[in-house]
Every structure is written in structure tokens, then in C-alpha cells.
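QA checklist item 7 of 12: single-chain prediction sanity check.
[x] sequence parsed
[x] length recorded as 678
[x] structure emitted
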Amino acid sequence: MNRLAALTAVLITVLLALGCSGTGVSPLTPDPEINNAQVTQSQTQMWGYYTVYMDIEAQTVEAVANRNVQHTLNINTFLNSNPMTLGFLFNNVDNQGTYLDVNIDVSIMHPLPGKPQFNGYDVRGTLISNGSATMAYNGDLVYPTLNVDQYLLNADGYTRWHNKPEFIVPGVGGYTPGLYSAGTVDGTATLNPYKYFADGITESVSAYAFLAGTTDDGVFSSGTTNTRNYQIRFPLPVPAVSFDYSILANWQAADVHPANGSDPMACDLTITPHIYFVDPTDNGGDLILDIGMFFWDSIPSLLFIESTVLSAPYELSLAEMTPTESGDHYAIWHVEIPADNVTGTEGNELWVIGEADPNVYTGPFGIPNDAQSDILAGFFRFDLFVADEPYTGNGPPVITDGVSGDLTFLQTDTKDYTVTANDPDLDTLTYDWTVTSVSTSIVEFSGPGDDAGTFPVDWTNDVPAEIGYEYVIDCQVTDSINLPVNAYPLTVTCQDIGGATTLYLYDGMVDDGDIVDGTWDDPHWEYCPDINAWDEYECGDYPDELWTACRTPYIQFPDAGEFTTIHLEIWHWGEMPEDGFTYGDVGTAWDNGGVDYQQANWVEEWLVYVDGMDFNDPGYADFIGTYASEADPAWSHFECNEYAGENWAICFALEEWGASSGGTYGGWHIRKLHVWYE
């Protein structure tokens, strides 16, 4: 049976009671006299609805709660009132001219901490998009098209719940479009992509892999925060780099847990390559699929396959609906379908649709929507490879060795990495290599290598490697007929330059408390988490006159004879006024027993400017650039060859006078620091 949303019923009862009694009890606290037996139905409902704006240059995200998208007395009210329930972290932006790919992590915090009776289930973060294609399975289903609409490249699935065109009645069963949505995305799709959120799920794992291994019923516990990775493609120049975002969840009653949804939640698909297209008269093959589907209630009543290579949706027969493998919450089916509509090798895809009859989209309390009489279903979308020549038993490449090469490297090195592979049919092999930073999950470098299994990486220019950081070398090998084969990856580590020894390393990702203020005037330096950097004037604008300094912790310099050069690198942005006198220093500070901060040794021969921005050069003649005007800051490099065996701190001082009346400065930001010797 379809389980209707009852959280709203509880909150309505509580708030009505409060309105009559005037007791002042928080509406988040359920009335102990509520008869939970009367509210025991469950249905997917909306936790929150936002318009998300992205500043690509600054790599910042603002999520504005749509106050007009309110389910009356729904939990959305509480989530919208707490801006900390939704967070974003940029990973990468890739502008290809006609489209923009944005890789971000989205974090959702349960809006009701300390209230396990409101644990949610099957929470889905849904990207509300426009739709440019219509599904043959059901003409009411409109979905986004790649490179036309805003598109989630790594969706866990698609849902019909609470789309804009069909759930139009204001209140608990629908919503009124918010004012903030105007001019961003119309939300014409009735099928929208989602990522699955639950306790214990990691950013990039597939929903199917997680659910197949979890024992926690897909719970999103009260007060917890869960994070998922979104890879979103925005067509250029329109629509804008913003989108509408809704959060869906299931709940049944305060004393009924778990309360999962009836629609299938995840799907895993293995496609055996067999379809080809040479020309309109020579094409075909079979769609050979092994379908794994995860569900909570019961095995799907019917399965449908819709694809660009089929002239009509295919319904699995009674015999085909017999699983080859099954468990309490999953089943696997095998099906082979003749491809009768192969029109080309590019842009092919397929949908797997799992129905959950007799469940339908009926809203709570009988509130109508335009989907309510249709069978509840899960929708899962997959890319489909089509070869450019017939399959004749052609086998995929065979990799006899995973990625091999040195496990460590220096920043100045160029290293070769190799994969040994062969093809049983003597097809020409191509190689697709990537270098990914372990700390950020960002692909730093990619390419085909020498097309013979070797991939040279210049760790200075191809990948500006950072000392102490790890990188993963991946390779896919393909014969252009079969699907690519993944080689076993290799993880490598960047060592200190020339066998050097690090004296101090600040990675800039968090406020680790190591950078401290000087004692001149008022201390100004503080850590600004929105840019992951230390800012010289409290993350804001500057006064007309400023004298400020900061320093590293005290560092024990090596003894005489143990080094040839001590190096200092600062990774920073800077922005100075156009008029007035500006002066910057890099030097050392005397320990003085750890009691005070004493400047010493400014602009002396012990510290030699090598490259970058010379802080010892008054006026900043070789100024580098500003935050938000470049994707990354830059390093300034100095050599420090004095004071062996002594205890010093590295200092940075900045002096500015004579700004025009009312003028402000853009800032000097320190992102990372590295001190080492060799």
C-alpha cells in the first residue's frame, strides 16, 4: 500500500494545540498526547527547497531558502529557518565554452537535532531542472537533456515526487513556486535527478553499492550531517549558473521506525557491448543487460527498458521477471533485447524503470496532484556505448600489469608511468590517463600519453605538485569496440625537493592556530574560512592607515653544516591601493622566551628574494594579483641562509599610508606556508 506522510499530521496537531492553549511549548516538540496510531502512513515529502546561486570566479555558493515553497506546517519550515542545514564545497570548475561543468560537494544537516523520533529515511537531494525530452513510457514524464538543460552527470536516480508542473496545490501535498526561482530555471521537468543521502554514505560511492552493504535502513539520523558529490553541467550562455534544489525525505510516525519509501531507490547495470552502427543500412545488435535493483518493500512489479536504440519501451516478460539472483532488498535480472532503432554511435542512453504497483503518487490527506493515479516507480538513467562496426566475438583489452612507476617523486621531476596491455583481436589500443589529487579529488592532469602505454608527468608544469601530498595515477584502456578496461591505479607521493627536510608546513585548509598576530597597534590577522586563507584585516575592508604583521610559530633552524639553503615559500594573493605609500617586509622574529614578539633582521642579506612577489620591494612593483581574479594564488620564494641552530619565526609585515579619503583595500591573504632546508 502507499504510505502517506504523517509528519505533517503530527505538526498540525501540535501547532493547533499550541494555538488553543497558549502554553509556549516549542512546535518541534511532539505533544505526548498525540495518538501516533492515527498517523501511521508515510510518503516522500519535502524537507526543504532552495535556489542555489554560484559565483564561479570566487568559487562561492549561496543557497537561498524559498520561503514561498512551503508545505504548510511541514518540516520544510524548520529547515528553511536554519541556514546551516545546507552547505557547499567547490572541487573543480571546467569551462568548455559551450558548457560549464561544476564539481561540488553538498552537505545536508538534519534540521531537528536531538529528536530521534524525527529520523528521516531515503533522503534525496534533487536538482530541479528544465525538461527537453519526453519519455515514451509515459508522456507526462519530461526530463532534462544533456547540453540543453542543467544536468546532473552522476545522478543516483530520478524521481517524480514534488516536481513543479504536477504538484501544484499549495500546502502539504505540493508547493507554490518561490519568487527566488524567477529568472534562474523554470523547472519544467517532471522527472528530476537526485543523490541519495544517509548515515555512513561517502561523497562519491554509488547509492546501490552503499544500500547493498548497509544495515541501517537508509536512515538520516536527527542532528547528523551527510555529504554527497554533485557533478553538474550548465549549458552556456544560458541557463544561468544557478539551480533549484529540493530535499525529499520519508517519515511515518514518532514511534514507527524505519519508514522507507515504496519506490525502488537505486539501480546497478552491467551492459555487455553488442550494439553497433555503420550506416543506416548496417546496424543492430542486442541490448544485453544485467539489472540490479534495490528496494525496501517488495520486488518491483514490472520492469521497463526505454532506450534510444529501441523503437518503443520494452516490458520484461513474466519469464524475464524471474531474477537470476535475489535477496531481502535486491534482485538481479538478465535480459537481451533486439536493438531495432540504432541511428548513430553518439548520444545513446537507456532508462531502467521499476514499478511498485499498487503504490501510486497520492498525496497526504487527499490533496490532489497531477501524478496521483499513476503507478509509483523508480527511474534510472545510463549511457549506452554503440560501436562503429559489427560485433564478431571481439574481446576487450587485457591488462597484464596495472599502473607502474616510482612511488615517490620530487617537485622538479618528470616521471614515466606505464601500463602493459594487449588485445586478443589485435585491435589498436588507446589509453586515457588521469592524475587525481587525493586531498581534493580533483583531476589535475589527463591525456593519452604516448598511445603505447607510457604516460610522462611533469610534476612542475603538468601538475604543480605539493610536498607531502598524494596523487593517484589512473588509466583506462580501450579498443574502440568494447567498453574501456580500468588498470589498477598507482598512488604516488611528492617528496621534499632534493631530499630536503620540512621545518614548517601550513596547508591552508583549516585554521590550525599556527599563524599568530604581531604586537603592533591592534592585531588584525584572522583566518577567513570562506577563502581558506589568513587575511590581514579581519576578512574585511581596510582603514585609511594600517601597520600590521603576523608570524609563523617559532622554528628551530638547523645547525651549521647541516644545510646549504633554507627555503621559504608563501602562497598568497595581494591587492594594494593605487595611491599612497605601501611597504612590505619578510624577516624573522626573536623568540624572547616566547613572551613577546620582537621584530628583527628586516631586509638583510640573510633573506634573498628568488621569485614571485618580493615583499621587501617597497610599492610592490611586481605585485601578483587578487583573490577572486585568479583561480589560484601564487607562490613567492625566498632563500634564508643565516642563523644556524637558532630559534626564529618567519614574519610578514605590511605598512600602508595615504589612501584617498574613503578608500579601501582589497586585501593580502596568506593561503599556505612552507619552510624547508636542503
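[x] summary fact logged: The helical segments are 7-21, 76-80, 207-213.
[ ] second reviewer sign-off
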